[in-house]
Amino acid sequence: MRIHSLAIAVAGLVGLFGVESLACSCFPLGSGRDAAQAAFDGTSAVFRGKVLSVRRFTENNDQFRQITYEVSQSWKGATSSRVEVATADDSATCGIYGEVGEEYVVFASEPDEGEIRSAHYLANLCNGTRAVGAVPPDWFAFLADQPELPLTPHSGCSSTGFGVGLLPLLALGRMLRRKRG
Prior knowledge:
It is a single chain. It contains four helices and six strands; from the N terminus they run ααββββββαα. The chain has a six-stranded mixed beta sheet, with no helix packed on it. The protein has one domain (about 25-150): CATH 2.40.50.120. The longest helix is centred in the last third of the chain and has 19 residues, at about 160-180. It starts with a helix and ends with a helix. A hairpin with a 2-residue loop joins strand 1 (about 45-60) and strand 2. Helices cover about 30% and strands about 25% of the residues. It is of the alpha+beta class and about 180 residues long.
């Protein structure tokens, strides 16, 4: 009986003082054109793309996933045919999942200064990103009314410019070899 009373007292104190919740909670966007408009207006990039890769990383002591998309259509923000999006590492903290090879309609925002350096955009469960098969028909109708942005082909170089920086070094090495021989 005494242990039972102690457990109730501890539970009451936890309830009274609260414990940080790790569950994602956001206001549902709904499925109508107004919801699509709200998702569109609330983000800086809206595109359709296929997941090429997913990798985990840590930045500022937080766990993230970087999802790389091959963009097939863009209605806002994204103009490159390849875009990297960072998201929380799990759905409990509102992270989106990206399955390699699957297509998504992504609603993402640009990171605030100093927030994240490892991706072009940030996305979460609350801003409207969904697998193509889960996008409401009203949302596709809304997007069909938006002008598409032209996409710049991906050059195959990394976002750090390593590939571009390596080319002059290779050319210099070749030139030096020719002079020796």
